[in-house]
Amino acid sequence: MLWAAWGKRGVPKPKKIVKLSSPGETTLRDLSEELGVSLTTISRALRGKQGMSDETRERIKAVAERRGYISNKAGATLSTGRLFSIGYIIPGEDRWPTGLLQADVMRGMLNELTPQGYSLHVYSESYFGTDRTSLLEAARRLRVDALALTIEHDDPIVPSSHPLPFPLVLINRRVEGLGANFVVADEERGGMIATAHLIESGHRRIAHIGGPSRTALERRLHGYRAALDAAGIAFDPALVVHADDVSWRGGYHACETLFERSGDRPTALFCGSDILAFGVLKYLENHAIRVPQDVAITSFDDSMFAEMTEPGLTSVRKSRHAMGREAARMLLALIDGKAAPAQIMLPVELIVRGSSDRPARLPARLRH
Amino acid sequence: MLWAAWGKRGVPKPKKIVKLSSPGETTLRDLSEELGVSLTTISRALRGKQGMSDETRERIKAVAERRGYISNKAGATLSTGRLFSIGYIIPGEDRWPTGLLQADVMRGMLNELTPQGYSLHVYSESYFGTDRTSLLEAARRLRVDALALTIEHDDPIVPSSHPLPFPLVLINRRVEGLGANFVVADEERGGMIATAHLIESGHRRIAHIGGPSRTALERRLHGYRAALDAAGIAFDPALVVHADDVSWRGGYHACETLFERSGDRPTALFCGSDILAFGVLKYLENHAIRVPQDVAITSFDDSMFAEMTEPGLTSVRKSRHAMGREAARMLLALIDGKAAPAQIMLPVELIVRGSSDRPARLPARLRH
DNA sequence: CTGAAAGCGCTTACAG
DNA sequence: CTGAAAGCGCTTACAG
User: Fold this and answer.
1) Where are the domains of chain A?
2) Which nucleotide has its C1' atom closest to residue A1's CA?
3) Which nucleotide is nearest to A69 (CA to C1')?
4) Which positions on chain D have an atom < 7 Å from some protein CB?
5) Superfamily of domain A187-318+349-367
6) Contacts of B88 in chain A (CB under 8 A)
């Protein structure tokens, strides 16, 4: 170390800031000197390699422990070529759901990575420059073993047909032809259970407010249709409106469009996302349409909004933490050259709150 | 997006997974062989050291560029003891504001760190174990040059009287006796401008809903009092209620307490945080108290809620991005042994929306 | 202005 | 079961 060297040459040690890589750091050599055992043996003992006496191993471990030995990653990296780090790229700009998603996903990843000795290096997408350097080139510069990337449902994606020469896991969205692995939630099933829940309460005219196509919201729509099909309810295009953007205003206007259409009003409504639902509730409130008495609502995301509306929003929960966890496991397997599924689809669950609360015994025909 | 340039390189298709630290990586030695120049000289040229001919330097740089040379950090680290990485610790559990804060702060840090060749390593607080291993010990294991830590206003803190032997910057909150540097927002001034704005609109009976003591919310309260003082308005304890916790329910109940008190009702209300304000608006709505006609509202945080309420919430904005940026600059200075202020206090601004919109010309006395 | 050499801390193929 | 030695890629004090 820099400072250690200074000390040895008799140069006065600066007092102010001491780096974390402090001079006193115990090395294998220190242990070797104290134990009278070779570096080779110590390295083996500490890394749990087979083929050595238990007694030697224990003795070494005890001393390492007492001396507070911490392996210097740089030395190991240089020697093995293994970096033991995973890169995680966060979007370069702020959009509200992003932050929450990233933090939970990161925690999920860290819980897997840290015990395995991996660290998580975070980079901003904007680092790669406005000239759109290729991800491959960027990844080389990063010096990580593999990359993870979270994609929000409305992120634009330019797919590629070239498989990547390193492990890449995309979280939250599937992008075809990328040669990546994926961790996604079962959006379609989420749409299904959110709709089925309304059907089970006796609703037949169930509307849906969705979002842009080619996003998770489209898959939720598929789930909605599947649930109707399963219940033998005919799909009515007049009951579906797509919000221009996934915002509360988008939800408000979509709801407006829906309720200003002539014909029978829906008695229930499945919103493709909580943030849309927020606008929907606002519209209904403004127009004195009661929830759940006049319209029952289910939604998707189980975000903080679900708990903050009145009544609480019944919403589909997907675990961002689990996404991170599975992504990390996938990456570790891929780095070790083990087989890993091309895609992991995580289960979802419906969190039932007041917005869909309706006397289930009331026959459906009394409601129209 | 990253993806755009993706297919453009004629990268040969690898048969299986190749690590990012691929064997083909160009090293200084490769450059040395091609150029017929020593490693020493190449290293110097690439790192911009003085005392060499421009011609040699340019020749070296050109070849390095052409060969796509990327310095291997592990080698440099081993040689210099400098790690070029900053640790950032995120909370181990989920609380809503956290995620947003972390993501913005990270972006702010990355914008400073990446160009300087530093990487950001993220760790979960839970990694350090429930036994509250000392931060010092934990930091040693991390192998980073310095640490940053974001503290939410309601995070518990275990203070320490031992100064730390490495650079530590605390973001968003000041903790005494820790030997750390701080980046905080000017919470007090925020409280002041949020209150002064109401005073300028002619209000005299201005209530405040605050939060726990020893948090940022307490400093916002100080700002509120300072603004009243400056305007010659007597502080009335009956107009201040502290929410039990910083949640919308906390805000709701605090508002309930406030409005059920006998005596003159306030005509304006400064909420210590948007999430409290959310509950306040709910209470007022439920009781047919109009905003801003009956009560004008200002708040703090300028979170997504501020835009999602009706009317929009006038709220104090602090830049989390700027906090990250300043924290990173501070850390870099400290690592280099340069002087850095013990604390940087960032400015705040009031974002005016409908909730405080009131005809300013109406004399105050007509309002009671 | 340039280079030869030592060394950072670790791992591992090879030899005993 | 254990050790001596080479080497990973870089930087820098020292010598020319």
Assistant:
1) 21-71, 85-186+321-348, 187-318+349-367
2) C8
3) C9
4) 1-13
5) Response regulator (3.40.50.2300)
6) 122
CATH topology agreement for domains A21-71 and A187-318+349-367? no
Q: Which residue is nearest to nucleotide D7 (CA to C1')?
A: A79
Bases along strand C below 7 A from a protein CB: 1-13
- Asked if B186 contacts B223 with a C-beta cutoff of 8 angstroms, the reply is no
The Cα A252–Cα B201 span in angstroms is: 31
Q: What is the pLDDT of residue A203?
A: 95
Residue B112: its chain A contacts at CB < 8 A? none
Stronger pLDDT, A150 or B355, i.e. the higher one:
B355
pLDDT(B315) > 70:
yes
CATH architecture of A21-71: Orthogonal Bundle (1.10)
Cβ–Cβ of A143/B5 closer than 8 Å? Answer: no
Contact B20 A135 (CB under 8 A): no
Q: Please judge whether A145 and B19 are an interchain contact, meaning their C-beta atoms are less than 8 angstroms apart.
A: yes
Three-state DSSP string of chain B = CHHHHHHHCCCCCCCCCCCCCCCCCCCHHHHHHHHCCCHHHHHHHHCCCCCCCHHHHHHHHHHHHHHCCCCCHHHHHHHHCCCCEEEEEECCCCCHHHHHHHHHHHHHHHHHHHHHCCEEEEEEHHHHCCCCCCHHHHHHHHCCCEEEEECCCCCCCCCCCCCCCCCEEEECCCCCCCCCEEEEECHHHHHHHHHHHHHHCCCCCEEEEECCCCCHHHHHHHHHHHHHHHHCCCCCHHHEEECCCCCHHHHHHHHHHHHHCCCCCCCEEEECCHHHHHHHHHHHHHCCCCCCCCCEEEEECCCHHHHHCCCCCEEEECCHHHHHHHHHHHHHHHHCCCCCCCEEEECCEEECCHHHCCCCCCCHHHHC
**CATH: 3.20.20.450, 3.30.1490.100, 3.20.20.140, 3.40.50.2300. Which one for B85-186+321-348?**
3.40.50.2300
Best probe of the A interface among B13, B21, B275, B336, by most A CBs < 10 A, is B21
Q: Is B166 on the interface with A (CB under 8 A)?
A: yes
| A144-199 pLDDT per residue, tens | 888 898 766 555 444 454 556 678 898 887 777 667 889 999 999 999 999 999 99
CB within 8 Å: B11 and A304: no
A110 interfaces chain B, CB cutoff of 8 Å:
yes
Cβ-proximal residues to B361 (8 Å cutoff; 6+ apart), any chain: none
The DSSP secondary-structure symbol of A313 reads P
Query: What digits encode the pLDDT tens for the residues B26-40?
Result: 888 888 888 888 888
User: Which amino acid does the sequence have at A38?
Assistant: S
Q: One-letter amino acid identity for A259?
A: F
Tokens of B159: 């203070």
